[in-house]
Every structure is written in C-alpha cells, then in structure tokens.
Amino acid sequence: MVQQPSRFDVRVGLVWMAGLIICGLAIPVAAQQPVVDKFVLSDTIQPVTAGELDRAIAQANADGARALLVELDTPGGLLESTRAMAGAILSSKVPIIVYVAPAGARAGSAGFFLLESADIAAMAPGTNAGAAHPVIEFGPQPDATMTQKIENDAEAFLRSYVTRRGRNADAAEAAVHTSHSYTAQEALDQHLIDLTASNDWELLRALDGREITRLDGNKLVLHLAGVRIEQLRPGLRDALLGWLVNPNIALLFLVGGALLIYLEFNAPGTIVPGALGTLMVLLAVFGLNLLPINYTAVLLLAAALVLLVLEAKFGGHGALAIAGIVCLTFGTLTLVNAPVPELAINPWVAFAVSAAFGSITVFLVRLAVRARRMKARLGPSALVGRRASAMEPLNPEGRVLVEGEIWRAVTTEPVAAGAPLRVVGCEQYLLRVEPAEPQRNPQSPASTQVE
C-alpha cells in the first residue's frame, strides 16, 4: 500500500522550492547591482600610500566600478609621491571622486593637490583644504633660489590640471604661493571643489546623472543611482608597509637591532640575538629607504657610535659619552627631511632613544673590554697584584690566604704568621709573595751610647 504525502509535507516542499527560487533570483540581482569602490586615505602622502592608491584604482577597473570614491584626510607628505598619486588619478580610466571627510578632516599641503586632480572634488562640512606651500620642516633648508624653484614648479604642476578641470587656477595657486587654506564653503565659493555633502550617500545622490569632462576632453555621465559601496581594505602587505614607514618605528628597530647584533658578536653561537637583530635592522633600513634621508645625519650617527666606543674603551670621564649622545640626538632628529611633522621623528623618541642607546652601548663595550683584558689572567696569574695574608710563618715557603682561597706561596725573606702580603708572581701553582709593608726587625737596635 502506497502512503500518500500529507498536506504538511506538501507545504514544506513548496516553502523550500520558493526559497530556492528567491535565492536564485537574488544572486543575479546582486551580481548586476552597480558598485562604487571606496578607498580611505587617512595617512601621510608617501610611497606606501601611493602604492595603495595605485592598487585601489586597478581594483576599481577590475570590478567595473562606476567610480572610485577616495575618502581623504591627510596633513600632507612628500612632493614626489604627490606627483605620482596625482598622475595616477589624472590617468585613471575609472572616474575618481576625492571626498574630504569626515567632519574635522583636512586635505593639507599635498592632499590639496590630490583633491584638485580628481574628476569630482568634494568636501564635507567642517573640513578644510589648502596650505600647499612646499616646505622642509626638518633637515637642512634650501637657499632662496632653490626655494623659489620648488615653489614655481609646484604651482605649474597644480595649474596644469586645475584649468583642465575647469576650476579656479588663481585660488589654487594662492594655496601654494601664500599657503592659503579654505573651508568647505569657501572652496565651493571659489570654484575649487564641485560640491559639499555630509556623507557618502548624499554625495552619490547629488552626483547621479551629472556630466563630467575627463582630462582628455571626453564627456561622461555618472550613473550612481542604486549603487552599493564596496570598501577596499588594505592587505597585510600594505598594513605592514604602513607600519614600517613610520620613522619612529624604523628608528626603534634600527637601534634595537644594532644592540642585538652587538650582543651576538660578544656571545657567539647564541644565534637568536643575531638573527633577530639582523631582521630588525633590515626592516628599519627598508622603512627609512622609503623616506627622504639626510645623509649628514647618517654621518652624525656614525660619529656618535665612534665616540661612545672610545668612551667605553679609554674612559673620557663622561666627556666622550656626552658628545656621542649629543651627536646621536641631533642625528636622529634630522635623519628624515620631513615636509610635515607626521613624517619626522618625534623629538621625545629621539631623546629617549639617544640616552638609552648611549648608556647601554657604553655599558656593554666596557664589559667587553674588561672581559678581553681578563682573558689572559685566568688561574694563578689572575691573582698577581692581589692582597694576601700569611696563614703560617713563611721561611721561605708556606700557606697564604688570597681572595678567600688557600695557596702555597714562597717569599724571599722570612714572614711571620698573619703578616700582610702582596702577590707579585706565580710559577705554575706556587705564588711568589712579598711583604705588603716594610718588615720591621723584631730586635730593636740598641740606642747609641757615648763613652
């Protein structure tokens, strides 16, 4: 007898079938939904962030994104990296929207160049942009002629694409020439940006259907209705590079690695300090290589190391150590030619590292020098010059107490028990001693009588 399915079983089957149909329809809808990739740039402008922007643009092209939204908040950075990033934005196939956000963010210095290079420049209320005059905050300052050359070059670079974007070139040049900075409303009134918006969705709604002119003159209409925003996350490589490019981290790695390598040289075979120290030094050099290095500061660091070693080896009553620490401090402070303070070594870090490294180096080198001098004085030879005490009369041989140890010793003149002695040499395990004080004749000389 065949059992007929119950009404409950039929209903369950219909529910399952409906669910599968809905899921099958939802997958193509999600796949066909237009996307806008979002890249958050909240850091200084340097080679690492330049590489991150290049990868974000490549990802947006690969995703077929309607646009790439770059949320910008930066104090500025390196001029060469700025040129590379602005060039990537200008040559991008996908439209680039640079949006200074959230409230309180800024597009300072190099960030202003990126803002003006975008197809769409936007700012959130409560933000500011500008102050784009090229400066060298730390390190040797260029002369007036070189300063003028750098300024003129930056102005010409900014003017070359601001006019093509249809924005106010005079107001943009004022940000470079006089370091003028603009609020969001001022930038909009001066035609430096295209619009203001409080958040991403308000920005995209305002841009939907807007026609833009690309750098090559082609017209493009933005279709941003119903898009989903896909945020691009930095990978492990970008996170590690962003960490290493911090000059304070690089300095700590360099100093710590140098000390570990020194420990390995003084205790060969331990392996771990040497391997870890080498890794730390290589990572520090890699990070510093991404930053503009002042090579005069490198010479100061080398001079500091020499002075600290001389202090430990010869003893300069602290004068050489102080000079070494001063050189180390100035060297670390001026190691990076930073255009903004965020790319420079923190002064407190420089002071702390210099004092600690100088003290530790002097201590370790003194230990090493003392150990090398004592290597030839092991066993009885190490007792030469030590104080001793006669445990029994020596005439000429007997037992003496030296540094808490009992030794056989020989002397050139009779010595009473308990007399203080000094070790002057050794022959195998027999010490040669002599009185530590001039011996008195036990029989006092008779007083001279006049007859």
Give me some keywords for this one:
451 residues; alpha/beta; OB fold (Dihydrolipoamide Acetyltransferase, E2P)
What average pLDDT do the residues reach?
A: 82
- Lateral arrangement of strands in the main beta sheet: 8-5-3-2-1-11
Radius of gyration: 39 Å
Integer tally of domains: 3
CATH class of the largest domain: Alpha Beta
- Helix share bin: 40-55%
How are the SSEs ordered, and which strands pair?
Blueprint: H1 7-32, E1 35-41, H2 47-63, E2 67-72, H3 79-90, E3 96-100, E4 106-108, H4 110-117, E5 120-123, E6 128-130, H5 144-162, H6 169-177, E7 181-183, H7 184-189, E8 195-196, H8 200-207, E9 211-213, E10 219-221, E11 228-231, H9 236-244, H10 247-266, H11 272-289, H12 295-314, H13 319-333, H14 347-374, E12 387-390, E13 397-402, E14 405-411, E15 420-427, E16 430-435
Parallel strand pairs: 1-2, 1-11, 2-3, 3-5, 4-6, 5-8, 14-16
Antiparallel strand pairs: 6-7, 9-10, 12-13, 12-15, 13-14, 15-16
Helix pairs in contact: 2-3, 3-4, 5-6, 10-11, 10-14, 12-13, 12-14, 13-14
